[in-house]
């Protein structure tokens, strides 16, 4: 299954102590770089959690604004998340919106770092590196929905 291979690449990228070599290998497996994304979100969890926030996609010389909502399994705590990343395999802007499955890891006590690798049904992939503030521990599956703002 395509997502199983993708999830394995995500786990390798964020589970190693030296991220640079793994990130390069995972970037190759992600596909063709087509855009960038920045996001700001909050997450509150007690086993099962909720994430909400905003994102900006830079694609084809334009900037698109999105709202983010989602859920997390196997996490506890609260954090404010700031992230930036690379979008892969996006061929038209309307293929970006929708629900993404994620392999996710975060450890925050005060300030922390995390990573998120996402894929939607259109084959669009996102690799995001995050800086977090709060108190949260997550090693989980996550689903995030990006909805275009008017």
Would you mind describing this structure in some detail?
It is built from two helices and four strands; from the N terminus they run H-H-E-E-E-E. It is globular and about 35 Å long. Strand 1 and strand 2 form a beta hairpin. It has 150 residues and is an alpha+beta fold. It starts with a helix and ends with a strand. The chain has a four-stranded antiparallel β-sheet with strand order 1-2-4-3. Helix 1 (2-15) runs antiparallel to helix 2. The model is unreliable at 1-27 (pLDDT under 50). The longest helix has 14 residues, at 2-15. It has a single domain (33-148), classed as Lipocalin (Beta Barrel). Residues 1-25 form the signal peptide. It comes from Acetobacter cibinongensis. This is DUF1134 domain-containing protein. Keywords: Signal.
Helix content: 10-25%
* Record field, number of beta strands: 4
Give me the CATH fold name. Lipocalin
Q: Please write the string of helix (H) and strand (E) elements.
A: HHEEEE
Shape summary:
globular
Q: Could you list the spans in which at least 5 consecutive residues all have pLDDT below 50?
A: 1-27
Strand order of the largest sheet: 1-2-4-3
Domain module count: 1
Distance between the termini: 35 Å
The proportion of strand residues reads over 45%
Radius of gyration: 14 Å
Biggest beta sheet attributes: 4 strands, antiparallel
Global mean pLDDT: 78
Number of H- or I-type helical stretches: 2
In the CATH hierarchy, the architecture is Beta Barrel
CATH class category: Mainly Beta
Structural class: alpha+beta
């Amino acid at each position: 299954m395509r997502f199983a291979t993708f999830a394995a690449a995500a786990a390798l990228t964020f589970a190693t102590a030296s991220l640079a070599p793994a990130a390069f290998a995972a970037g190759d497996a992600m596909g063709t770089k087509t855009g960038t994304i920045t996001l700001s979100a909050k997450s509150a969890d007690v086993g099962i959690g909720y994430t909400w926030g905003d994102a900006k996609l830079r694609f084809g010389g334009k900037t698109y604004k999105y709202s983010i909502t989602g859920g997390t399994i196997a996490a506890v705590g609260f954090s404010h998340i700031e992230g930036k990343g690379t979008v892969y395999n996006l061929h038209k802007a309307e293929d970006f919106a929708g629900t993404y499955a994620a392999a996710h890891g975060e450890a925050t006590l005060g300030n922390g770092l995390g990573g998120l690798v996402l894929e939607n049904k259109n084959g669009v992939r996102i690799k995001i590196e995050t800086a977090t503030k709060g108190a949260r521990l997550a090693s989980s599956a996550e689903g995030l929905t990006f909805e275009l703002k008017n």
